[in-house]
Every structure is written in C-alpha cells, then in structure tokens.
Design goal:
Blueprint lengths: L8 H10 L15 H19 L8 H18 L12 H20 L21 H19 L8
Helix pairs in contact: 2-3, 3-4
Length: about 160
Amino acid sequence: MGGEPPTPAETYLAALERGTPPSLGCFDLKLHQTAIYDFFSTLLLLGVLLWLGRRAHRTGFMILVFTIWYSAMRVVTDFLRVDRRYFGLTGSQLMTIAVGLTCLALLARYRGAPPRFAPAPSEGEAALPETGAEGDAAQENTARGQREAAAPPSDHAP
C-alpha cells in the first residue's frame, strides 16, 4: 500500500532518555477539550431545567428548552473542533441550527406542545391553575365536586 513503516519504539525511548523526545505529530497542536465544555454546559442546563421544573408548564416545554440550549451550545463548541466545514460550519452545526430554530419557533408559538398534540387531561386530573376570581371559583367547584363524588351514596333523594 505504500507509505513508511512505523518508527520503532526504541527510537522514541532513546530520544526520551537524551531529553529530546520527538513529536508524535499531535503534541504540538493546541486543542480545546470540548467534552469538558459540554459537561459544564450540561450541568448548568440541569440547574436551569430543575429550576424551571418547579412549576407546571405545558407538555413539551422542557424538551424544547433542553433542545434550544443544547443546540446553541453545540454550535458554539463546534467552532472549537477540527472538522470538515460546509459554508464555514460543520454538519453538526448546520443540523443543530435547523433543529434549534424549529424548537425556538415552537416555543415562541405554543410555549410547549400545540393543543392538538397535547393529551387531554384525564378525569380527576387538575388542569393548570387559573388566576383571578374565576380561577378561585373554578378550583372551589372542582374540590366540591370531588368531595361529593367521594361521599357514600345516601338512601334518600335530595
């Protein structure tokens, strides 16, 4: 197939003993450890998702937030990677930009899953709390209805 045979290990060991080890071709490059950047970004993302998860959101909200964050960080860290470029961007960057923009549009439009894709609340499952006087009255009516449904049946009609 051609090419040169590999350099024997003895050559490297002898140079190491002299105090002048030869470069193996990769030690003179400065590379970013993008996995470490991804790790710290993901830890920060976990904190954001736990903070956002303290209150109820529409179906799909959290996955949209996750995807937007991950897409943005992937675009940033891919600038530090050595990879084939198309139009100045890597294939991963092009894909995550498309996915991130799609999720950003969904988040802006629906703040989660569109109603036709969201499952209907099951009977007895409380919907997101409403605010104001109507919300208080609706919650009171729901609680009263649940108490009446749980009460044992009576022998006489009202």
